[in-house]
Structures are given as structure tokens and as C-alpha cells.
Predict the structure.
Amino acid sequence: MTDFNLRARDWDNDPLKVERARKVADAIRKNVRLTPDMTALEYGCGTGLLSFALQSSLGSITLADSSAGMLEVLRGKIAASGIHNMHPLRLDLATDPLLDQRFDIIYSMMTLHHIADTRKVLADFYTLLNQPGKLFIADLDKEDGSFHGAGFEGHHGFDQAELTADLEQAGFGQVRFSTVYELVKEVGGKPRSYPLFLMVAEKG
């Protein structure tokens, strides 16, 4: 988490991160009709790029992250923009109790592969959703470990069939995937492409 705290100040300076968030937001809009009476939770929000791309179409948005540095930058962005429907929250579902609040949609981008116990967090998402409600997860397809490189202790992307089984075990139905972005990184001196999926699952 220290790494994310250190990177928070410059996070939004990467145009590819901004583009990625916009592509994921566009894909979410294609899968649900967003309305101003809908409540939303973004888990692993970082500096809020994805929620800023969606906020004009939603009601109250809770933006949760465990990185104090990311949340500090996010609070500054919200204050500077004069937006009133975005509410930052320090939250780590691995250790913190569940919120009492429930949400119409939950979305997360490039967060799940950092979470050790994905089955627990998927079950938590199910509990936190209203019924009916929708969950959106944007993350990496299964890869060989080269995306983060040596020493990374998270998941090397996800096999879509295995993730579907975990979602169904948590109670979700109508699980579907689409590729929404291609992340390109230089690995071993050569550019490599890593597909980013958007998973949609429904409660109720």
C-alpha cells in the first residue's frame, strides 16, 4: 500500500490511466441505464478516475480505498471540482466490517487482482448490493505474471470461467464478460498487450 501512497500525486498524469477509466465507464454505461436516483460504491477507487467519468449520471457515490495517499488526492479533486455527490471513505474489506449502507451498483477497476481472498470480497459485494443490483469488475485476463513482474503477491489476472464460478458461489447470476481495453506495457524491451475485461453480474 505504501507504493500506492507514493504514486498517488502523479497517478492522474498518465493519459493511459485516464483513457482506461473512460473506456471502462463507457462499457458500464452500455450495460446499465444509470440514473440520478442510483447509489453507487466504487471499491479500490484510487484517485477516482472511474467515478469522475460516471458521476454526472449517478446519485450518491461512495468511493472506498485503503490508501490514504490516494484518498487525499481524491478529496482535493472533489473540492476543486465543486462536486457534491462523491464521498471518499477509507475502507479495506479484508479487515474492516461491512458498511451498513447498501448500493444499487458496485464497480471496481484493476483492484481485484490485488486482493488475496477474492471469494470473500465477492461475497461482501453481494451483501452490499441492493436487490436488484449490478456488480461491475474491470480487471486483467489471466496472464503469465509478466504484467507486474517478479515479487508481485497478487493474482496474475483471472480465468473467466473460474471467476464466474466464484461469482455464482457468492450468489450472483447472469455473469458475462467483454474485453473493453488493451493495456500495453514494455516487457523485456518489447511491447506486450494485456486484455482488460469488464465483468457484469447481477443480484436478484
Q: What stands out?
A: The chain is about 30% helix and 30% strand. Helices lie at 2-7, 15-31, 49-54, 68-81, 118-128, 160-170.
